[in-house]
Amino acid sequence: MNDMSAPRILTNQDQKDCVPVYVVWETTLACNLKCGHCGSRAGDRRSDELDTEEAFDLIDQMAALGTREITIIGGEAFLRKDWIRLIERITSHGILCTMQTGAYGLNEKMLRRAQDAGLGGIGVSVDGLEDDHDKIRGRKGSYQACLNALRVAKELGMVTSANTQINAISYQYLREVFDAVAAVGISHWQLQWTVAMGNAADNDDVLLQPFLVKPVMDEVAEIFKHAQTMGVTVRPGNNIGYFGKYEVLWRGGQGGGHYAGCPAGHNAIGIEADGTIKACPSLPKERYSGGNIRDLTLEDMWHNSPELAFNRDRGTDKLWGHCKDCMYSDVCRGGCTWTADSLFRKPGNNPYCYYRVTELEKRGIRERVRKIEEAPDTPFAVGLFEIIEEAI
Amino acid sequence: MDVKAMPKGEPSVALPLCLNCAEYIRATDVPCPHCTQDPTKPGGRYKEDGFYARDALENLLDAMERAATKQT
Q: Cβ contact (<8 Å) for B55 and A253?
């Protein structure tokens, strides 16, 4: 398979039947990095993480519901002693297994074992050039570890993606970051905005201000075209967009079309290492937990938990702010739930939207966000931000 | 997976592309709210930036695939 996104492409039938096509699974919260923007505040493993047999049972339940791709994340997924066995179990069902990693300590031997177990590809987080990356990741040498893992994975024939967060630090060097990861032979470069969750809510200086979305997207569009000439696909993450003149560039064609709204809980599941089931791995547990796999079956939660079902009717009643009156409101529905909820503790209003920024600019307005309440010191914690409108 | 037993949801709305400015519009939008041109006539950025050629190639490949499927 040369395109990791293929199993994730949704059909109309997938959407009608609410098939949980794509699962992102935090298999452990243990992590060997100390990232200044980590939403889950990973570091120590959770005290009550699923054991191997419980994890196997969960995988079997995902397969029974029609899941086609599972991305294992952390923390750092490979710090689990049974991570290879989890990959084997996932792929034994014919499900594509991929891994998102910081790659610190991920060596050739481990990648070979993972590939033999069926791992289809890796996504490595590269959040800047060497100094910035090592600083935000909290480890000297972590940048070189990323490039080395990508290089080795490429040599092994795996699909390789570098994933870069766009924030107040990295946005100035996106072209240079692309050149660095392209040089080691990546097939994909995925981008997403840094979201105001966990450590990023504490260190809110790292957040890009919404009024910078337009120049950043202009730059990304140029990189996109350049990447095409090298055979590298630049892919917008779920919180990058939406619409405007570049939508056709990133999402148009090749069986795509345009952004179709947040798939959390409609065709996607997020799992925490303790067995908590959510609509998206990044949403806070206290408001978005559909239950725990130790108490309920996945099927029961998927069918009956309202915390997982909020996107399925594609309603627009939860939209507010400028998203409420947007011409794309019933299609986009405020974009990424995680991005909006992390700022405002409720979804439905997304100041990081390209179309919104350009429309406001036509009216001589720009927006910035300001923190008004700190986030508690727990995984996936959110603070509270407000939007300030300013004349340009 | 028992499809009949799955919870039901609404599929996303599919928007057409303005064949002049290459931005997404409503099927009923004439003229295009973004560029004020006729959205059904290929031209402008849609042609100049290669989207016309890209879509034509995809349509051709789709047609070939459908034809091949029909033959088998």
A: yes
B9: chain A residues, CB-CB within 8 Å: 15-18, 266, 311-314
Interval A328-375: pLDDT, tens: 999 999 999 999 999 999 999 999 999 999 999 999 999 999 999 999
Residue A222: pLDDT over 90: yes
Using one digit for the tens of pLDDT, what is the confidence trace for B21-35?
A: 999 999 899 999 999
Residue B2 domain flag? no
Interface residue of B12, B35, B51 to substitute, partner A, most A CBs within 10 Å = B12
Judge whether B51 is closer than 8 Å to chain A, CB to CB: yes
Dist CA A9 CA A69 (whole Å):
10
For B28, the domain range is: 15-71
Interface test with B, best of A11, A250, A258 (most B CBs within 10 A): A258
Contact A332, B15 (CB under 8 A): no
Residue B30 lies in a domain: yes
Q: Is the pLDDT of residue A3 over 70?
A: no
| B7 CB within 8 Å of a chain A CB | yes
ipTM, two decimals, is 0.88
**Domain membership flag for residue B56:** yes
Sheet holding A159-166, edge to edge: A233-236, A188-193, A159-166, A121-125, A96-101, A69-73, A22-26, A268-271, A276-278, A289-292
Q: What letter would DSSP give residue A245?
A: G
Examine residue B7 and state whether it is found in any structural domain, yes or no: no
